Every structure is written in structure tokens, then in C-alpha cells.
Amino acid sequence: MVPRLDGRPWETLPSGYGNKNLSANSIFDELANHPNEAIRVQASQPFHIIEKHLVLNDTEGLLNSFRDWVESHPHMDHHLLRCMAHIVLFMRMLNQHMESSQCDVVLEAYVRALIQDRRHSLVATYTACLSPALQVSVYAAFLEGVDEKDDKRTLLDLAEQAGLDVARIAKLVVENIRCAGGDDLQLGMETAQTKLSDADERRIAALDWLVFEKSQRSEAVNQACALIRTFLATRKHVAARAVLDKIPSDSLQVIQEEWKAKTGSTVLPAEDENAVHELTGLEAYLLALSSFDEWFRHYHHNKPAVPTRPVSSFTEQVAFEQENKQYQVELQRWDYALQACTQDAVQKIYAVLMFPDGWLQDLREVAEADSSRDQQLHLLRRLCLPSLCFLLVKILKTTKHGRECLQIADVIASEEYSLYLLFQKSELQQLFQELKQTAVDVLGTGLEDPLGYDM
Question: Is residue 229 over pLDDT 80?
Fold first, then answer.
């Protein structure tokens, strides 16, 4: 026997050791079942298992191990995840046959780890390595947690550079945030709500995702309309106005220019034309409500106070006469402003009631009807238009415009607008009672026809 250079004796091999037919598989099996616990523990470590599968060229076993680790360890070490993800990507480069779904499990877990570590600049790159079916949903879920406007623009640019479908991603982000808690239209409080909740502010801010690129402006209008419908149903008028402020004023022009550049045609597709018509109608309605609010404030809160007549000294009587003169001047000024507010409110309310081609009524039929949207539009017509009629009656009765008040009945009964179809029976009875009292008041003056017509 050749002596060892270090002088130590050779270890005696077990009996029959030389007769063993050792293979790579049997070696790893012996390590996994070794009587020494320390060796067994080391053999079961993830990095040693990875080595085993690579040595054995066992791609399927490697991916199965990766999937099991990800599913059983939700808080896996991020360094190990990074190693697993890059092994998957490297093996893809070698054209190894691998199940796409198993690869996605590893890569999606690594994307989540990047998000958790706030390494946002890398998220788009690794999301692009997922299968196309997952790319949009994974990146959209990531963007839902981004609030800063500058960050939103940067992350969309990174997504575009990585080859992701930015348009679908941005749309899905807005829809996910808008529909959080349900997409059904729920009728809200009797009184308007003036304070924005955190959830409302988040829904409104989500529209930022769709206004960066002009090519997405039509989708921005669609999503804005859907959000305004939700806010109007719950009488959140302040929130609805905030949505309008998010949409750039040149949106109609941009939509037309983008469509013409894309197709050469100036005729918008039915979906876009209907959306623009809807947004214009919603804007008109909110303007009408604002004009009524302005009239209400002026009538009830801006009217000058009548000076109190004194009952004592001559000096106080002289001072009262001066105060009364000033009061008459202010009252006249208030009355002029009231007439202007009344005229403005009446015009804007009629602009909604007599909206061209019908308020919240589509101009053209679309290839694939959206039954949910159609139902929402119908509900809002029944909710908003009768209430506007009552506001109009209130303005005209309060300001003693009896004849004009009675003419509202003609507009409601007109087949051109068919507003009478939107009233419940009790609402029509209430409205006619109001108009009946107005007719009696007009008749009492003896100056006008009690039905509002020329005498």
C-alpha cells in the first residue's frame, strides 16, 4: 500500500465497497439517508437540492421543488428566490423544456419579493418574463399600490420599455380601484354628501393612469363616466365634480385626432361617441346643480337684513332713515343678482331636461351591449331628471315666476323628451300639486293666464 504523504494511515473501506455500482442518483440517495444527521440536514438544504437536480439534469424535478417551496413558504428568503428565478430564466435561454405554469409560480413570487423590497425599477423587467396571460394582472396589482403621480408616470414608462401592454394594464388598474367593493349602482342618501372619503379620493386619483398618454384618452373618458355614475347615484356631487376636473379639457379634440391618425376617419366608433355624449351630459347636469346651489345661497344667505325701526330719539330716527336708504340700495343690488342667478339656473336646468338627443341616452348602438351600463344610465335618468324638475319648480315659484313655472308641464308632457315616463306616480302627483297651487296663485293676480299661456 502506498503511504500517504501526510503520514496518517489510510481509512479502511467497508467490506464490499469496491463492488458497489455507484451512480449519481444512488450517491444523492445515500446522502439523503446517511446515518449522520448533520449530513442528512445539509443534503436537504435548498441550494444542495438545486445542485442535485442540476447534476442529474432533472429539470422537471427542479421545477417541482421550486413550486413546492414557493407554495409552502410564503415568506421565503429573497436571495433564494432570486437564485431560483434566474435559474429558470437561464434554462429558458437553453431551450429546456419546462412547464410555463411552473415557471410562472417562481417568477411571480420573485416579482412579489421585488415589490416588497421596494425595488420598483426591476418589477417591469421580471413581470415581462411571465406568460402574457399573467403580465397584465400582476403588473396592474403592483400599480394599485402606487400613489405618487410622478411615480405612476415612471412605472408606466418602465412597463412600456419592458414590452408590457401598457394600455390594458392602465385600464385594469383603474377598474380594479373603481370597482373595489362592487360595481353595482347603489342609490345613496337623501341629502348630498360634500366630504370626500379616502376611498373616493383614491378612485379619483386612479384616473391619472389613463391621462398620461393621448392614445388612452378615450378610455379615460369611459372610466370617468363610470365613476361619475357611481358618485351621482350616492349623491356625492363634490366627488363627481372632482372626477371632471381630472379629465383634460381638450379630451374631445384629442380623441378625434387620435382616431383620425389611426384610421383616417373623422367618425368616431360608437363606443367613443356615446362616451363623449355621456360625459357632456354629466357635465351639464353638474353645472345645473352648481347653478342651483349658487341661487339657493344667494336667496337664503345674501339677502340684506331689514334695519330695526327705533322708537325713541330723533337722532336714532335719522340714523334709521340712513340705514334704510342703504338697505334699499343693497336690496336692489341683491335683487339684480337674484335675477341673474335665477336666469342662469333655469337655463342650465333646461339644458339638461332638453339635452340634445336625450340626457344619458346613447347616440348609436354598439356591437356588444353593456347591460350593466345601460341599466345604470336608466336608473340615473329616473333619479336625476325628476329631481331637476322639482328644483326648477322651486326656483320659479320662489321668485314669483308663475307663468314660467306652469310651462314646465309642457316640457314634461312633450313626446320629444318623454320625461313623464321617468316619474313615479307619487312624484307626478306631487309635481301636479305644486303646479296646481302655482296656477291658483297666478289666477289670484289677475294679470296672467292661470295655465301659463298668452292671454
Answer: yes
In 10 A of CB 415, how many CB atoms?
A: 7
Quick one: which of 66, 81, 68 has its CA closest to 119?
Answer: 81
Neighbours of 131 (CB within 10 A): 12
Q: What are phi and psi of 361, to 5 degrees?
A: -120, 130
In sequence order, what are the residues at sequence separation of 6 or more whose Cβ sits closer than 8 angstroms to the Cβ of residue 187? 233, 234, 379, 383
Joined grid coordinates for residue 174: 383603474
pLDDT tens, position by position, 311-324: 667 666 667 677 87
**Angle at the Cα of 250 from the Cα atoms of 246 and 256, rounded to 5 degrees:** 120
347-383: b (≥16 Cβ within 10 Å) or e: ebbebbbebeebbbebeeeeeeeeeebeebbebbbbb
Task: Give the whole-angstrom CA distance, residue 345 versus residue 316.
Answer: 41
pLDDT, tens digit, for every residue of 187-214? 655 556 678 889 999 999 999 999 999 9
CB atoms within 10 A of CB 184: 11
**Is the distance from CB of 186 to CB of 375 less than 8 angstroms?**
no
Place of cell 363610470: 226
Query: What is the CA angle 104-110-113, rounded to 5?
Result: 145
Copy the grid coordinates of residue 256: 378625434
CA distances to 7, 375, 427, 429 from 424, in Å: 108, 17, 5, 9
What is the grid cell recorded at 434?
305644486
Each residue of 296-311: pLDDT tens digit? 999 998 888 877 766 6
Cα dihedral 108, 109, 115, 116, rounded to 10, equals: 170
The whole-chain average pLDDT of the chain stands at: 88
CA–CA gap between residue 40 and residue 29 (Å, rounded): 10
Q: Which value, in Å, is the radius of gyration of the alpha carbons in the chain? A: 37
Strand ranges in 104-221 using DSSP code E only, listed in sequence order: none
76, HSE (Cβ side, Cα atoms, 13 Å): 26
Q: Give Cβ neighbours of residue 365 (< 8 Å, ≥ 6 apart).
A: 270
Q: For residue 224, give the nearest of 255, 193, 238, 203 by alpha carbon.
A: 203
For 360: left if phi > 0, alpha if psi spans -120 to 50, otherwise beta; the answer is: left
| Region for 204 from its dihedrals, namely left if φ exceeds 0, alpha if ψ lies in -120 to 50, beta otherwise | alpha
Name the grid cell of 73.
Answer: 413558504
What are 158-168's pLDDT values in tens digits? 999 999 999 99
Which pLDDT value is given to residue 49?
86
